[in-house]
Design brief:
six-stranded antiparallel barrel; rod-shaped; coiled coil; alpha+beta; three-stranded antiparallel sheet; Elongation Factor Tu (Ef-tu), domain 3
Length: about 325
């Protein structure tokens, strides 16, 4: 029987039904996986883990303690920085207050003593001068007397300069330098306090503990992740939109997300789609899309998907769109 005779026997209604079935468009589908926002909490210092307060898979609230690193060394460094700050603060107060009256009085007394010694040296030298023509005084003795006068005069100048320094007070440059040193030390104190707080690893957001790579007693290097959280009330679908369908997908579009062979979809909406394309990952290669670029998109799901684990493969259908 030929195809034409077989179609003639079916009749017009059957032909119309077949034509409608052939023209019916199904909503386009894309593939992807379920994901959560991952929060990685690194080790702020190379310290030993002394307390583990959560377990993997446990739900945590914002600010809840997860781990505690050994704070002994950081506390000692904080105490040293605080002591140095106290020293700089007292030094600044001393400079701002200026010299003490007792120091000024001592400088005046030193000047008076130096002046008395200078007068005595000059008087001795003057007594020796008339005797230098004869053999009454040796030339070496006269030279020593002259040198004593010069030394005493220099001591008078030094004592007067020391007194003037005290009377003029502290130089503004010294005050500024000490104030800057104090500010630097106070910044060190603040940094040590921040580091001490960071040694208590807490959850920045609500979520679920996905992984604790290091155990009690381990010492993780600086920057190594000591806790990984999955945040969010529900996962989102990370899907790859083919280039041929990119123009029809917008933020806010309704999407039905299917998990495996599940008949009932999870309702969601597109919350993000990248503007730059990337190559389609291997698990999303389907038919003619295998050689095309795709655009990464994220579909936010409702609370009915809250218990779904991350990493499950999904397929998404854009409601109201045609292939």
């Amino acid at each position: 029987m030929t195809i034409a005779r077989w179609l003639g026997r079916l009749g017009l209604p059957a032909l119309a039904f077949l034509a409608l079935g052939a023209c019916r468009n199904e909503p386009p589908q894309v593939l992807g996986t379920l994901e959560y926002d991952r929060i990685t909490l690194p080790a702020p210092a190379a310290e030993r883990i002394v307390t583990v307060e959560v377990r993997e898979g446990q739900r945590v609230a914002p600010g809840q303690a997860l781990l505690q690193l050994d704070p002994t060394r950081t506390r000692a460094e904080l105490a040293a920085a605080m002591a140095q700050a106290t020293q700089q603060r007292e030094r600044l107060a001393e400079l701002q207050a200026g010299p003490r009256r007792e120091d000024i009085a001592q400088a005046r007394a030193n000047l008076a003593a130096a002046q008395a010694q200078a007068r005595d040296a000059q008087a001795y030298y003057r007594r020796l001068l008339p005797l230098q023509g004869g053999d009454y005084v040796a030339a070496s003795e006269l030279d020593r007397a002259r040198a004593a006068v010069g030394s005493a005069t220099g001591q008078v100048r030094a004592a007067r300069a020391a007194l003037d320094e005290l009377l003029h007070g502290t130089r503004p440059e010294q005050v500024a330098q000490t104030r800057a040193a104090l500010a630097a030390t106070q910044a060190q104190v603040a940094a040590q306090r921040v580091l001490l707080d960071k040694l208590r690893i807490v959850a920045p957001r609500a979520g679920r503990v996905d992984s604790l790579p290091y155990k009690l007693g381990d010492q993780a290097p600086v920057g190594a992740p000591v806790a990984i959280l999955l945040s969010g009330d529900a996962p989102y679908a990370r899907i790859y939109v083919p280039e041929s369908r990119r123009a029809a997908v917008h933020v806010g579009d309704a999407v039905d997300v299917y998990l495996g062979t599940r008949a009932r979809p999870y309702r969601g909406r597109v919350r993000m789609i990248r503007s730059e394309p990337s190559f389609t990952p291997y698990y999303a290669l389907t038919g003619e899309d295998a050689e095309r670029l795709s655009y990464l998109a994220e579909v936010a799901l409702g609370r009915d998907a809250a218990d779904l684990p991350a990493g499950l493969p999904v397929r998404a259908e854009f409601r109201g769109a045609a292939r």
